[in-house]
Each structure stands twice: as C-alpha cells, then as structure tokens.
Amino acid sequence: MARRTLRHIFFTPLIRENPVTLQILGICSALAVTTSLDTALTMSVALTTVLVLSAAIISLIRRHIPVSIRLIVQILIVASLVIVIDQVLQAYFFDISQRLSVFVSLITTNCLVLGRAESFARHNPVLPSVVDAAGNGLGYSLILVVIGTLRELFGKGTLMGVPVLRTVEDGGWFTPLSLMLLAPSAFFLLGLLVWAIRATLSEQAEPLAHTPPDRREAAE
Amino acid sequence: MADLNPISLWKRFLALPNDNRGKTIAVAILVAALCSLFVTGATVVLRPIQQANRAAETQLRLEALIDAIPGMEAMLEADDGATLSTVVVDLETGMAARDVTPDTLDAALQDPANYANLDDNQDIAGIDTRPRYVQIYILRRDDRVETAIFPMIGSGYNGPIEAMVALTGDMNTIAGMTVTRQSETPGLGARIEEPGWQAGFQGTQVRDPAGTMKFAVARGPAVSPYEVDGITGASRTGRGVTQMVRFWLGPDGYGPVIDAIRRREF
C-alpha cells in the first residue's frame, strides 16, 4: 500500500470517511449534546482536543506499549485527558459544563477516540497520527455542528442563543418545533444526513444484508 | 560489572522486548503514575476557580428560590420591616451560633471536631457526618419569622444532592425548594433540577398534626398533602430526596432550630 499523504489523511475523514456518518461511531454524544449550537461546539472542541492529544501520546510511546495491556494503557491516557478537560470546562465554562453534564466524561468511552488510537495511532508516527486525529475530530465536529445548528434553529428559533427566527411568543411568525429539542429528532436528522451522503457518494452504501425472496411465502 | 548509569539503564529498559513481563509491569506503573500526576495537578490547580463558580451558582439558586416563593419579592420590596438575614446556627443547641459568623464559618468547618458522626439509625440521609454549624437564611417581618431557608445535603443515586428548602412561618409548610448540586442521571433523576418539579413542593406539609414526619416524594403522582410527585424512572433519586428532607427537618438536623423558631426565640 502506498503511503497516504498527510493531506489525504486529513481530508478523507471529513466527509468521505466521516466517523459519524460512515462508521456510525460516537453517536451517543452526537444525539445528546446537539440541542443547541454552543453545547455542540464545546463538545466538538473537547472531543477533538482529547483525540489529538491522545493520538500524539499513544503514537509517541507506540513502540513500548506491551500488546497484552495496550487497551488499558490507551484507555488510561484517554481517561486522564478527559478528566482534565472536564475540570478545565468546570473552571472556565461553568454554565456550559453544567449543561453538558456527563457527556464530557463519556468521551472516555467514545468509540471514536479508542478506535483511532487502536487502528491508527498505534501503528503510525506522531505527525500522521495527529493529522488523522484532527481530521476525525473535525469530521465529528462537522456533523455535530450541522445537527446542532438545525436543532437549535428549528427547535428554538435561535443560534448560539441569539434570536434568528422570531417566534410566535415574541410576536414573530415562527412556531418552534419542540420535537427538534427531543432526542428522536437527532436520529431523524442523522439518518437523513447519512442518506444524503450515501446517495451522493454511492460507494458508501452497504450491500443488502439479505436478498428478499422472489415471491412471498404462502401465509398460514 | 553492573552498569548503574541511569541513562544507559533507561536505554536497556526500552530495548527489552515488549512482551517481557517486567517491562509490561513497569510500563503499566509508569503510565499510571504519570497520568495520576497529570490529573491530580489539574484538579488542584483548578479547584479554587471551580469553588468560586459553585458558590456563585448557589447564590443565584438562592435568589431564584426566593423569587419563586409567592409574595416573597413583594414582601422584601414593600419596605415594612421585612428583612432577609443570614444566620449561622448551632445544630446542637438549636440557637444562633455564639462565636461563629458567616465569615468564619468556612474556617470552623475545616475543623473535624465540628462534625458529628451519625450512627446507622440516625443517618437516614446517608451522609455519615453532619456539620455542627450551618448557615441558614431567615426572612423576618415585625419580629416574626416569615420564612426560613435551610440548606441540606443527602445522597442520590449517583452522588450527593445539595438543596435548599424554604419553610413558612408555621415551620411545617414548604414554601419552596431548589437543588443546588446533583449528579443524577440526565433525563431521569436529573429532572429534580427542573423548576416544574420543584414547584410541586410549594404548600406541601412536612408533619401531620400529631407531629409525625410524613413528607415523601411519592412513587407516581402525589396523593396526600405530605407528598410531592415522583419522577418516573428515578425512584432511587426520589428516595434520596425524601430521606434528605426527613433527616434535615428531623431531630438530628434542624429540629432544634425549628423548635426554637416555633417558640419565637429567633
């Protein structure tokens, strides 16, 4: 396999191999924190930071991680970074950290972070690992920001808390869709997004798991 | 001849094969030690800022609680002798503390001697120890206590719950309640933070006319004047709140203070 260029490593995970829409990784937090744009952005920054730092550290010591305890070592590094990020948020962004509640600490168990550590950072030098982590983090962030924007705009008529569409309550014309603030709407939006991406990039579509039988079985 | 130069020792250690048992253990210990140093360092450096944030938050919640009690704001604004004062009470005597003021409270609470250990029968709220001095808020009008606000702490499903409960002058009717800190499950137990649920506390009675503690978070909708609605899927959190309120308004909590207020000693 030819060595992939850094450019390629960085841009592929943004859309073509986006961790959320192609691999459906990390959607727990993608659903939970996207009710408004500011929480989605904070979560994106937190996850990207953890991803990049953990990739750098793991890649740095990759030749000396014993295979038998590699997952524990990786999780330990990820968990420490997550705790520190959480503490920083609590200190400097208290209000947002209250609204993100447990989801920052749950970055530890986000498949995305461990997935990149295990499949990429463990086998590659520091620079490509960091670039790959940044690409994946930004790919995740892109989806979060898109969903967060749609949900906040249509659910509350605001963006980053600033009114954009004047709601009926304030004398405007827009009736907020309260469904957008509930978890199912994130599923719908993510599903539509995956559909749109796979319709455009048809090589992402998965083969059918079963071929339907030619004719229906006789009903009993 | 043993080579004791640390640099060459380190190099030899790194050169060991990765499946070497000694190296595996050493790597595990090293990574664990470095990570714990990192986490501890961050926690210690950031703690003062976090505490300041939390104190500001508690103050905000207190103000919100006062605003939420019907008629409270009007009472404070209608300049007729109504004043809100902060009092440090001594839970052992049930009186205002003699030598501890709100300013010296933090220092007093650093001293382990100012905590009472609770035995299993007393400790219904699951908090192990109870401070001797607590700061409460009293709203007075014409020398009568109109409302008193009591901070409390209990244990929920995931961790401690801190709250403030306001009682009206009869010391038996809840005027309002707010949660200042909790770590319950988002969407289930964490709904104790919702003003809609907290509004259910207003008008709830704590004891029946015979003086028996009856307050409870119901399992489902409240069916008696002593209950508030339960939250579906959060029965352990609800139980935690019940026990917390029962403990703190009971004889081992603010009981002596409440009795003193009833005797008009405040």
TrEMBL record, chain A:
One of its GO terms (molecular function) is oxidoreductase activity, acting on NAD(P)H, quinone or similar compound as acceptor. The chain crosses the membrane at residues 20-37, 43-61, 73-94, 100-117, 137-154, 174-197. It is a multi-pass membrane protein. It comes from the Bacteria. One of its GO terms (biological process) is sodium ion transport. Coiled coil: none annotated. Keywords: Cell inner membrane, Cell membrane, Ion transport, Membrane, NAD, Nitrogen fixation, Sodium, Sodium transport, Translocase, Transmembrane, Transmembrane helix, Transport, Ubiquinone. InterPro entries: NqrD, NqrDE/RnfAE. One of its GO terms (cellular component) is endomembrane system. It is found in: Endomembrane system. Pfam families: Rnf-Nqr. This is NADH:ubiquinone reductase (Na(+)-transporting) subunit D. It comes from Maritimibacter harenae.
Automatic annotation (TrEMBL), chain B:
Its cofactor is FMN. The chain crosses the membrane at residues 25-46. Pfam families: FMN_bind. The modification FMN phosphoryl serine is found at S235. Keywords: Cell inner membrane, Cell membrane, Flavoprotein, FMN, Ion transport, Membrane, NAD, Phosphoprotein, Sodium, Sodium transport, Translocase, Transmembrane, Transmembrane helix, Transport, Ubiquinone. It is found in: Cell membrane. It is an enzyme of class 7 (translocase). It is a single-pass membrane protein. The keyword Transmembrane helix applies. InterPro entries: FMN-bd, NqrC. GO terms for cellular component: plasma membrane. It comes from the Bacteria. Its EC number is 7.2.1.1. It catalyses: a ubiquinone + n Na(+)(in) + NADH + H(+) = a ubiquinol + n Na(+)(out) + NAD(+). HAMAP family: NqrC. Belongs to the NqrC family. Composed of six subunits; NqrA, NqrB, NqrC, NqrD, NqrE and NqrF. NQR complex catalyzes the reduction of ubiquinone-1 to ubiquinol by two successive reactions, coupled with the transport of Na(+) ions from the cytoplasm to the periplasm. NqrA to NqrE are probably involved in the second step, the conversion of ubisemiquinone to ubiquinol. This is Na(+)-translocating NADH-quinone reductase subunit C. It comes from Maritimibacter harenae.
